[in-house]
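Box S1 | Example of a co-folding query
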Amino acid sequence: MNAYLVPNTIVVSRGCPHRCDFCYQESFFGTGRSFYTARVDRALAEITELPGRHLYFLDDHLFGSPEFADALFIGMKGMDRLWQAAGTVRTVLRGHTLEHAVACGLRSLFIGFETLSAEALGSQGKRHNLGHDYAEAIRKLHDLGVMINGSFVFGFDQDDPSVFERTVDWALRQGIETATFHILTPYPGTRMTARLNAEGRILTRDWTKYNTRHAVFQPAQMSPEQLERGYRQAYRQYYSWPGVIRSAATKPGLAGKIRHAAYTCGWKKSETIWKWIIRSGALGLARPTLEAVLALGNRGATHGQAAGDQSAPWLLPGQAHVPERSRHSQRVVV
Ligand code: SF4
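Box S1 (continued) | Returned holo structure for iron/sulfur cluster
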């Protein structure tokens, strides 16, 4: 148990009910059923068996079936768990599933915002993000004490060189605790790859570069080098000290600000410390700290200003891969 910070990883569904053009998941699951869930009673029995308090659901979209999610979360009430998972903007805003999730321990949610451009979302078939107010989803999560790991993708045909700064600035103003940035990557078998192929825009089939950190296709409005530079700059800017302070400052109350800063710094600004802890085989000893930071969430619930990062050292391979309006908020309905 001490070799891992997060030993309780669990999967209770497979795939995703959506079909975004750039997403690997449909080609990954091939010709089989691409989305299905476990039986609720079996999932609950498995959760009951897991030791400790913290859980990490690795499902692509834990909220993919609202009926399953509601039944699971209602069944988990009283188990005294703290957990993290991935969902979508739409599921955050729909019905009372999120409230059920928070009541049984949800404290951090990975959300694929992907882009602030409605046109880009539409062109990639991510229509379930359209027509929703991102800021409203963020505010709802923060009001309920749920931290956000927001995922953003650069390189859509609608992206020009200003996309990096605009995206980072928006995410910081929303008080998103952690952000993961990705370069759009044409994985084999996706509809987007077929399109880029037909247009002769795939630049390399060196699979070692298909890791969302390299530009392996010709972007529409910038050079591949600009795309890679902008991506790196986005990370630097987001996790700079001024960035962390600006984002944490959006939280009301000292506890909210401390929780935000502690989580962000643990995620991205403590790699040397994590490496040392991993080498010493004492990663599990950091678990109570993670649980304490997550547990802070429901006390003094926060509202921000406005949903797996491979590089986070404590994640296991395969884990990465989501009140009144503040006067500073910007309404983004995509
Ligand atoms: S990008 Fe997210 S919502 Fe779209 S298909 Fe993939 S997992 Fe589902």
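Residues 300-330 have pLDDT under 50 and may be disordered. The chain has one domain: 9-298.
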